[in-house]
Design brief:
The complex is a heterodimer. Chain A is an all-alpha fold. Chain A has two domains: 134 residues, no CATH class; 217 residues, Orthogonal Bundle (MetI-like fold). Chain A is built from 18 helices and no strands. In chain A, α7 packs across α18. Chain A is flat. By secondary structure, chain B is α/β, with parallel strands linked by helices. Chain B has a single domain, classed as Rossmann fold (3-Layer(aba) Sandwich), CATH 3.40.50. The model of chain B has no long low-confidence stretch (mean pLDDT 90). Chain B has nine helices and ten strands. Chain B starts with a strand and ends with a helix. The chains are: A mainly alpha, B alpha/beta.
Chain lengths: 369, 230
């Protein structure tokens, strides 16, 4: 009992002490705001959820961070996520804190822009809440054990390797194609343009069937390679081929748009100034379209990495990560699958952020704030 | 110096029809014409960016109709200043020297120094990033870039279009000086009569893809009066 009185006394003493300091520092309005904060804390934590100890502690925190808007906002987000949505408090807290920190930069924006931001924020929360909730579903030890297991590492390595090979191949053949389409007009261009996107439209399993019919040991091509000792199905070759099929449209489409957005006059000037068409491509068009192309590479890589439907048919073995997860799920159920999937999510996020950061860091003069 | 023989080129619904033109060395030719008259298309065809449907282009007596743009020896400046945004100002200015692997002898060095001085390039080069330049500064850099390809003929496509009056005057003076000193033939496209009057040793008028009149500026002015009925 004695201890609780001490906490009550100290927390209120601290609150009043800082109140006196703030009285001198802030305008009347802000000072009243400071006082009403007490009321809000008292009602939500004390009266509503009857957690008085938390109330005293948060009072100390509240008075300390009141002068710093970013901290104050995070504090209240923490509080409300605790009181209103206790089940998802951590996830909600993380997401909203990020939004709050971003929002502070738009303080002076118009109401319209604030509304835009608000709507976008809600959408983001809906999208990412499941992912972040999911990340909390396993203990670090579990993740560590899963990560060090051999089959997992094998599947992960295979996934990374095959997606990287796929991206390289699509880059080598897709970028020239998109530059060609962006620079020349010819009959039938519209048809080619439409065909590029076709692989996205097929259900993944159909892609698997198409490739299996073409590459299986009974098909002419498969037979030929098998006679040379190369098996096309159930091998990394099959994985890469399937991945190329489903992911190439992303790189081709984005780099096509990137090349189109390069000012034609710059290419013209480069030619007139003495660079032939190849030099113009490497010196002007490619560097200017690089950001778009790189984004296309990221998309293609990510799409390849996540491909599973067609692989189930054409290359169940060797197992890529998505197949490995599916396999685990079939054999052992959800509980076994969660830690692997979490690791998958973390790795993909990590690679994604790293790549984005790389392309943002790219020191070009393209855009100046 | 430059001879165009019945040059024709269509571009969508629009077409250049039978353009005949002959320019002497050191001539400052001003091509007048309303918007959409085909002025830019004509310059780009001369440069080799479009293949003509018909007709021939001769430069110093050589038929260059089928030459690619990089082998023709023209300099081009567009209406809006188009600098390579991912290169530094210096890289922009010396782009052509690097691409054509031009050897700088004493004569060329003198020209470079002269242009650097007259356009005050040293100051601009120090700024490094072309995207922070004003419209006028960008246009100066574009002109310098075109000049440093040591062209036989400089093609200017409404170069003063987006510049303020003071800068127009300043660049007019400089272009005249360059024209005299470097013995450079210049084709200057504009729709501004006043601009034409300041420059011209020879003036042409183009409308709807046809070169309707070539002569001295007063002659073309009289022709225009009759043409538009003003």
């Amino acid at each position: 009992m004695m201890g609780e009185y001490l906490v009550i006394f100290l927390s209120h003493f601290y609150f009043i002490l800082l109140g006196i300091i703030y009285r001198k520092k802030f305008t009347n309005f802000k000072w009243y705001l400071y006082l009403s904060g007490y009321l809000i804390l008292f009602i939500t934590l004390g009266v509503y959820s009857k957690r008085f100890l938390l109330f005293y502690l948060s009072l100390i925190l509240y008075s300390s961070v009141f002068a710093i808007p970013s901290f104050l906002g995070i504090f209240f987000i923490f509080l409300f996520s605790q009181v209103i949505i206790p089940y998802y408090w951590a996830q909600v807290f993380i997401l909203f804190s990020i939004f709050w920190l971003v929002f502070l930069k738009f303080k002076k924006a118009s109401l319209f822009h604030k509304t835009l931001f608000f709507l976008g924020a809600i959408f983001f929360v809906l999208l990412f809440l499941p992912i972040i909730y999911f990340l909390f579903q396993a203990y670090p030890q579990e993740l560590l054990i899963t990560f060090s297991s051999k089959p997992f590492q094998k599947a992960l390595n295979l996934s990374i390797l095959s997606s990287t090979i796929t991206t390289l191949i699509v880059f080598i053949f897709g970028v020239p194609l998109s530059y060609f389409l962006a620079s020349f007009n010819f009959k039938g261009k519209k048809i080619i343009n439409a065909l590029i996107d076709l692989p996205i439209l097929f259900p993944q399993t159909i892609v698997g069937v198409i490739l299996l019919v073409f590459l299986s040991p009974k098909a002419p091509l498969g037979e030929f390679f098998l006679s040379k000792g190369i098996r096309l199905t159930s091998s990394i070759i099959a994985i890469v081929l399937a991945q190329i099929f489903v992911s190439s449209p992303f790189l081709i489409r984005t780099s096509l748009n990137a090349f189109k957005s390069v000012d034609k006059r710059l290419e013209n000037l480069s030619r007139v100034l003495g660079a032939n068409s190849a030099k113009t491509f490497f010196k002007i068009s490619f560097p200017l379209a690089f950001r778009g192309i790189f984004n296309g590479c990221i998309l293609t890589w990510a799409r390849s990495f996540s491909e599973s439907g067609s692989l189930m048919i054409i290359a169940y073995y060797p197992k890529t990560l998505p197949i490995y997860i599916y396999d685990k799920f079939n054999q052992f159920g959800l509980k076994e699958t969660v830690p692997i999937s979490i690791l998958g999510v973390i790795l993909v996020l990590w690679i994604f952020i790293l790549l984005r950061w790389l392309v943002e860091e790219d020191v070009s003069f393209e855009r100046v704030e | 110096m430059l001879v165009l023989k019945e040059l024709s080129r269509s571009w969508g619904d629009f077409s250049l029809k039978d353009i005949n033109l002959s320019l002497k060395e050191k001539e400052y030719f001003v091509l007048l014409g309303p918007c959409g008259a085909g002025k830019t298309l004509l310059l780009e065809t001369i440069c080799g960016l479009w293949k003509p449907d018909k007709g021939k282009i001769f430069l110093r007596g050589k038929n260059i109709t089928d030459f690619p743009p990089e082998d023709r020896g023209f300099g081009l400046v567009y209406q809006e200043p188009c600098l390579f945004p991912h290169l530094t100002i210096e890289e922009n200015i010396f782009y052509s020297i690097k691409m054509k692997k031009i050897k700088i002898d004493r004569e060329k060095k003198e020209i470079i120094e002269f242009i650097k001085k007259i356009l005050n390039l040293e100051e601009l080069i120090k700024l490094n990033n072309p995207n922070i330049l004003s419209g006028g500064q960008k246009q100066i850099v574009s002109i310098a870039r075109a000049l440093f390809s040591f062209p036989d003929i400089l093609l200017l496509d409404e170069p003063f279009h987006s510049l303020d009056y003071r800068l127009q005057k300043y660049l007019t003076k400089i272009l005249k000086e360059i024209n005299q000193k470097l013995r450079l033939t210049i084709i200057h496209v504009t729709h501004n009569l006043e601009e034409a009057e300041l420059f011209s040793s020879k003036t042409g008028f183009i409308s709807e893809g046809k070169l309707l009149k070539i002569g001295s500026f007063p002659e073309v002015k009289i022709f225009l009066k009759n043409f538009y009925g003003i």
